[in-house]
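Data deposition worksheet. Section B asks for the primary sequence of the deposited chain exactly as it was used as input, without tags or linkers unless they were present during the calculation. Section C holds the resulting structure in C-alpha cell form. Section D is free text for depositor observations; keep each observation to a single sentence. Incomplete worksheets are returned to the depositor.
Section A, Depositor: J.P.
Section B:
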Amino acid sequence: MIAFTQHNLGKIEDLFSDLGYRVRYEKGSFRTGACVLQNTKVIVVNRFSNLEIRIQSLIQLLLEMVIDVSQLEDKKKEFYKSLKKLNA
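Section C:
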C-alpha cells in the first residue's frame, strides 16, 4: 500500500501532469473523490476530501485510464508500475 503523504500526492499529480492532465481541487457535489471532466484533460478532485481520499481517488482514475508510458521518465514509469502492482 502506498503511504498517504503529501509527497506521494505530489508524485501522483506530477504523473498526471506529464501525461497532459491538469489536476484541480474544487468544491462541488461529488459522489466520488475525483472525476475527469468530459472530453478534456482536466481532473477535478473534491477539495474537502482528506489526503487519503484524494490519493485513492487519483490512483483509481489513473488505473482506469489507458496510459502511454512512453511519455514518462524512467522514475515515473517505475512509480506507475508500482501503483499498478499494489492495486492488481
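Section D:
Residues 51-64 form the longest helix (14 residues).
The chain has a mean pLDDT of 89.
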